[in-house]
Amino acid sequence: MNLHLVLVAPLAAAFLTFFLSGRDTVSTLRASLFLALAVAGFTFPVLFAGTVATSVHTWFQLPVLGTDIRWGLASDGLSGWLLALTSVLVPAAILCSPRIVGDRIREFAAAAFLLQATLYGALLSVDLLQFFAFFEAMLLPATILVALFGGRDRRRAAMLFLVFSLAGSVPLFVAIWYLATVPVMSGRHVSLDLVSLQALVATLPPQVRLRLFAATALAFLVKIPAVPVHIWQADAYSEGPAPGSALLTGIMAKIGLYGFLRIAIPLFPQEAKANAGVFVVLGLATVLVGALLALRQREARRVLAFSSLSHLGLGLAAIFTFRPEAISGVILLMVAHGLSAAALFFLAGIAETWSGSRHVDDFGALARRAPLFSVLFAVAALASVGLPGTAGFVAEFLLLIALWKAFGLLVAAVAGTTVILSAAYTLRLVQKLLFGSSAERNPVALEFPAAAAWAVAPLLLALVFLGFQPGPVLKAARTDLLTRLPSAQALIVEDAPHVAGR
Amino acid sequence: MTPQLWLLPALPFLGFLINGALALFGSRTEHGPSRGLSGFLGVLFPLATFILVVLAWQGLFLERDSILRLNHDLGLGLGIPPVKPFGQVLWTWIQTGELNVDFGFRFDELAGIMLLFITGIGTLIHLYSVGYMAHDRGFARFMAYMNLFLANMVVLVLGNGPLVTFMGWEGVGLCSYLLIGFWHHDASNGAAAKKAFLVNRAGDLGFLLGLFLLWQVLGTGTPLTYEAIANWFRDPAHAILLASAPVAALVTASTLLLLLGATGKSAQIPLLTWLPDAMAGPTPVSALIHAATMVTSGVFLLARLSDVFAHAPLTLEVVAWIGAGTAAWAAVTGLVQTDIKKILAYSTISQLGYMFLAAGVGAFDAGVFHVFTHAFFKGVLFLGAGSVIHALSGEQDVRRMGGLWRKLPLTFAAMFCGWYAIVGLPFGAGFWSKDLILEKVLLRGGPALYLVALATAVVTAVYMTRMMILVFWSKPRLSPEAASHLHESPLTMQIPMWVLGFGSLVAGFAWADPFHLDWFSRHMSESVGPAQALLGAGAGGGPSAILLESVGVVASLLGILVAVALHRSGKFRENSTGPLSMPARAWTLLFDGIHGVAGIWPVRILSWILDNIVQPLLVGMARVFGWCVEMAGGAARMAQTPRLRWNLGLSVLGLVALLILLARNIL
């Protein structure tokens, strides 16, 4: 299993798109779809292979400081599922793009492939600076996606996204820079790969560690995003092209949670544990703020944006219980949310091309005018609210259990309001889009592109399959996760003897 | 031999898939998919499920009967062996941490009885729908949703543990949503559907949290199945543990939360506001989902977890008072309604209150028995109401009906049976079950609860008789348009009505103690017997049953007389057409008001504040930050000079500054 091949595949695909025709959109679409599927073909073996890694060697040495920067690729259950999710969403986004990005499919596909490549890099990295390089490189295609193909206010939205992301990653960069200087200060020879870093971090004074942890956490909080650094998100998701927003929320946002699981918590286990309360509160605030704001949005994709905020906030809160249910649940949540949110964004994008507007009141009666679209949208919406029988239910159930076990019934109840509120805003959206009587005004049947149906239906089938058989995803956490970073395993809480004392 | 239990939900689900596909791909054609085919398939799959349930039910007793025969032949004096339930574990569903949930089914006597009438009456109502919905454009879609509902209801009842039940529980909620909002071109139907789903979800959260606490009581090593739960609570070794204060508190909290879930599904105080609105759905939906089956799942859950509830006396007290309060409130509300379906909706809420009351006093079997008889008589009342509405071209206001018994004699006869049963006249289905509940309430719940229940019985007779008078007996007040199209319903609608009408006369004999008929209670004893024995509900004593039954009949007759007298004196105002009077409206919307103050408006206000104050504030701060960055960038541009040496120097200077900063930090 050559992981380098997996990393190079989307890069090669991005490169190859430049040889495609800019005018013949149909053949460009076909060719880029083929490329995307080929990349997926390279990716899926990684998922089935379980834990795999290339050899790690020194990439370069920082001049003067002499710190080693390593290069190596590794994948386990956590990375594997996110890689697979990415590789599924990119072809779906390309399939859904034609009416939305116009005749610039080639450019859209290139940006999507670049985003995919940087995501792959971040997910596979074994070295902190290597990770950071990909983490930052991700901003470029993401910004291009928003700024090049978006709506009227796309420039401002892209700028806001960039400013927030940089504000989040500059402290992380400083933290890495600091860690790189430690060898000079202490006279030791150190490398920045994540395993050796653990030993290094453990020797630092607690105050320093706390600051480094805060800087690292901030970068990931912005990416998820969590309250109060979520401001960029609604604009980016609603101004960007719908398939692009699907990629941003479906996979890029997951890097935030991934960063906590892979980097922030394993490197700073004590700080994470000592400050767990802060993150649980932030996570729960994100759940509630996202849900309450979603109730009032007038644009379909803004509802979906705040819905994503709310769902991922639950994941953030649950990670900091350090419970096995939470780790499994978060991985499943990322997969489930990636699939359902992307499906909803894809479909919302199609609906916008019909009404020529993003305003929910301009839709309506699509159940009559576009039945297949409505069935897919309704199923995606139900998956998003976590109806049993879809993956979202199992994920939310596990996260609530973890929160309850760690912090008691009240915290679980607060988090559980998402069960009610998510139904409230999602059904409101369903009602506005699918139901109502605007059919009388404009009863024309609408043309739902078959390509979009082919893009969305597999995502929904996967959601239902994982709803009944979440085993493969849950198992990924049980067997593979954190094996690379042993110190975090000590955090996983085993059950205290319960009250009945058996 | 274990029957393939998975077939029971799979068959109606297959019906859903086929009819759903027909609806989806036939929607572009001019007339939609073939009604004959859709209707045939839509009834076929529930019927096949019903046959399988009957076969499974018979299979349940094969082994026991053969042992009995052997006992008899060998002349052994052994007692009757217990029935061994069928179980089937399909796959491991959720496995992580200490959690290990199997996806499986369990067919025991409680599930069997529930499934017998759910699929039996379900099939009849599917048949009725073929006639009722014949002219609807969405016929195939309707049959598909109905089949999906049946599949989910089977999962709810058949689940081998609370989490599988929860899957069916939310599934039936979804179908309820889809069917209430079936005519989705009208936004108010959509609003009613959404309300039903949201109120139920509030209950579902309670269900989940209650489940967590229950799991904590059991210890995380115990699998989450009904069998394990029952065994754990029945185990004498756990009696001392259950008596200790912290565990008892935990059990109480857990059952109270589970009760919240049950009140949501069964429309009890406090989560009852959605059921009257749910009448926006087509009438077969009201009959099947919102009268006969889904709304009784709360009672089913209480019976399923009776061993747990038996250890929470406080919760049982709450259950009893919720039941009595709901029964009384809804019966009074039923007095003033003018929409025939709303009258029946409040009647359903009220009858569900009786079932909760029975469970609350520890008579779980009596509660489930009322579920059983109620399915017949409320089913036929709704089907009859649908027939009336169908005949009057959609008229639902009882003030614009009257004298219909001549015009719709068959519908009238069927509804009369339903009326006879619900008011509790002798030997009707409701007579047996309601009087059984009244008896247990007096015995175990005390005089206060008994009086509330008895008064409710009087009021029930009043509002039901009022409805019958206004619809069938009083002078005709039809609109000319409705009168011109007046017609009796087709045979597909008649047959289900006759069967259910007949059932509401005789179903009560399934458990009629004075005749020594105890088929029903015998089959309930495996599931709820131990809990009731613990609560002492099985014990006899108290006033004689005959006396209590006479009191019940007197109450019914009193109610009927009051209704007739009120009608004679013109108190029913059947000739007015205006909206409800102020006090009547206030009483009807009492709980909507409470929900508004306690739930809806706080959420709205909070989200308004977030949207209009907090969010703009944060955006403003982000802007200011952005400007600062831009200005800093501008300054940097000015400082940039074309010379490379300068740039390099500045970089080195910056690096050194950073290093010094960091060095100070570490030393």
Annotation keywords:
heterodimer, A: 502 residues, mainly alpha, two-stranded antiparallel sheet, 24 helices, globular, disordered C terminus, B: 667 residues, 2 strands, 3% strand
Describe the structure.
The complex is a heterodimer of chains A (502) and B (667). Chain A has 24 helices and 4 strands. Chain A is an all-alpha fold and 502 residues long. Chain A has one domain (3-489). In chain A, the strands form 2 sheets. A two-stranded antiparallel sheet of chain A has the order 1-4. Chain A has a two-stranded antiparallel ribbon with strand order 2-3. In chain A, a hairpin with a 6-residue loop joins strand 2 and strand 3. In chain A, helix 5 runs antiparallel to helix 7 (139-149) and helix 6 runs antiparallel to helix 8 (154-186). The longest helix of chain A has 33 residues, at 154-186. Chain A is globular, with a radius of gyration of 22 Å. In chain A, 64% of the residues are buried. With 667 residues, chain B is an all-alpha fold. Among the domains of chain B are: 312-588, no CATH class; 599-666. In chain B, 74% of the residues lie in helices and 3% in strands. Chain B is built from 27 helices and 2 strands. Chain B has helices at residues 7-26, 35-74, 109-132, 139-158, 162-180, 187-218, 226-234, 239-243, 245-265, 274-277, 283-292, 297-304, 306-309, 313-336, 340-360, 364-391, 404-407, 409-423, 429-445, 447-473, 480-484, 491-506, 519-535, 545-568, 582-588, 590-639, 644-666, and strands at residues 86-96, 99-107. Chain B has a two-stranded antiparallel sheet. In chain B, strand 1 (86-96) and strand 2 form a beta hairpin. The mean pLDDT of chain B is 88. Chains A and B meet through helix 8, helix 15, helix 17, helix 19 and helix 20 of A and strand 1, helix 5, helix 6, helix 9 and helix 26 of B.
